[in-house]
């Protein structure tokens, strides 16, 4: 996460050349969502939209990225907190517009940050079926119920970027295993309620 | 030899000779040998122990180990087949008599079979093929305090480690669940339990 630098605010003034408020809005969203590596292409597009030189566009895009990420990192939710980030002589209307846009998007951005944080592979879906085993090579007649559980697991989002890798794992559980598992899950539920009630 | 219950294939020639030798044992000796055999059937992995016990039996009763092993091989044909085909003790008794064992010894063995078959059946069911069997589950849950993108997070995560038997190797699978996912997982597993119970 990039830190806010003094030069960033100067760069932000380039937004005054934007064709419309919606253009500013869209650029803010794109700059937040882009990883630092993706800022290059964004800068190129900003060049065209804002009729700015390549260097100016790069600085602008990087500044917007830092500003939006900074606000989300520190969990700033009040207008005053965001307004106070800007230096004294910053363009008044632009400051108000940026603050408004940030406030509009802050909770969506927070969710986005949480959804893309590093984690172990995540469970995305699960399906199950119950079979009855009627015969096998060790016993020719039986009626043993068993459960097949399919877990869809998504690898770490941060590693996969836009094309998440989802693998399916099918696991077989006997009744005894399921009972033990439920015991464990029940204990987790009890502990969670204890924590929630504190 | 008439139709046998425990197998459809022709029995090896040596078997009738082995049964004849068995008939020569006293009731006490036969009972001791039967005990050794059933102990092995209950714990088929304890091969070393089984061989030691057989060799002790041979020494104590002044029988040579080689012929004794052959006799034991013949005897074991019956319980192994009986297990596969869910035979009753009467059927086991009838088969031994058909093979040439004395009525007294056949009845004794059939009695032992009756006593031990529930355990042996459960063992055989346990050996039935399972795909990716879930062996163990470990878990931990905690709170994410912060991240590089969010200074304060405060969300609960649950991590599960599933130990799965793939063929002959164990594989560990790690997954993370959010709280709503955990509750829905728990709910589904309870439904599975109800379903399994209704079929037991």
UniProtKB/TrEMBL annotation, chain A:
InterPro entries per UniProt: COMM, COMMD9, COMMD9_N
Matches recorded under CDD domains: Commd9
Domain of life: Eukaryota
COMM domain mapped to chain residues: 122-196
Protein name: COMD9 protein
Organism: Haliaeetus albicilla (White-tailed sea-eagle)
From TrEMBL, chain B:
Transmembrane segments: none
BP-aspect Gene Ontology terms: negative regulation of DNA-templated transcription; tumor necrosis factor-mediated signaling pathway
Residues in COMM domain copies: 133-200
Signal sequence interval, chain numbering: none
Pfam families to which the protein is assigned, alphabetical: COMM_domain, COMM_HN
Listed CDD domains: Commd7
Top-level taxon: Eukaryota
GO molecular function, one term: NF-kappaB binding
Protein name: COMD7 protein
Gene name as annotated: Commd7
């Amino acid at each position: 996460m990039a830190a806010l630098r003094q030069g960033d605010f100067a760069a932000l003034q380039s937004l005054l050349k934007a064709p419309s408020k919606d253009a500013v809005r869209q650029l803010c969203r794109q700059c937040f969502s882009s990883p630092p590596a993706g800022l290059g292409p964004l800068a190129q597009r900003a060049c065209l939209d804002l009729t700015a030189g390549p260097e100016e566009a790069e600085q602008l895009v990087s500044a917007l990225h830092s500003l939006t990420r900074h606000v989300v990192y520190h969990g700033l939710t009040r207008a005053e907190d965001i307004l106070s980030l800007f230096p004294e002589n910053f363009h008044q209307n632009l400051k108000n517009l940026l603050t408004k846009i940030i406030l509009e998007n802050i909770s969506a951005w927070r969710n986005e940050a949480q959804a893309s944080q590093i984690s172990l592979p995540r469970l995305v879906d699960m399906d199950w079926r119950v079979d009855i085993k009627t015969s096998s090579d060790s016993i020719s007649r039986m009626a043993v119920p068993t459960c097949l559980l399919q877990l869809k697991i998504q690898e770490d989002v941060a590693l996969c970027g836009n094309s998440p890798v989802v693998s399916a794992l099918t696991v077989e559980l006997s009744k005894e295993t399921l009972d033990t598992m439920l015991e464990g899950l029940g204990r987790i539920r009890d502990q969670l309620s204890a924590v929630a009630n504190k | 030899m008439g139709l046998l219950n425990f197998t459809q294939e022709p029995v090896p020639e040596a078997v009738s000779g082995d049964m004849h030798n068995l008939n020569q044992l006293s009731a006490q000796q036969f009972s001791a040998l039967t005990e050794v055999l059933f102990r092995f059937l209950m714990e088929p992995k304890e091969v070393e122990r089984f061989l030691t016990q057989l060799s002790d039996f041979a020494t104590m009763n002044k029988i040579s180990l080689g012929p004794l092993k052959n006799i034991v091989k013949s005897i074991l044909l019956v319980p192994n087949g009986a297990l596969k085909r869910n035979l009753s003790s009467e059927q086991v008794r009838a088969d031994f008599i058909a093979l040439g064992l004395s009525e007294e010894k056949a009845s004794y063995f059939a009695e032992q079979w009756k006593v031990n078959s529930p355990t042996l059946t459960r063992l055989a069911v346990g050996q039935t093929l399972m795909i990716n069997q879930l062996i163990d589950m470990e878990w931990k849950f905690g709170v994410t305090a912060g991240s590089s993108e969010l200074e304060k997070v405060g969300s609960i995560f649950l991590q599960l480690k599933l130990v799965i038997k793939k063929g002959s190797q164990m594989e560990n699978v790690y997954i993370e669940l959010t709280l709503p996912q955990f509750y829905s997982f728990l709910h589904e597993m309870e439904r599975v339990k109800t379903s399994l119970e209704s079929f037991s």
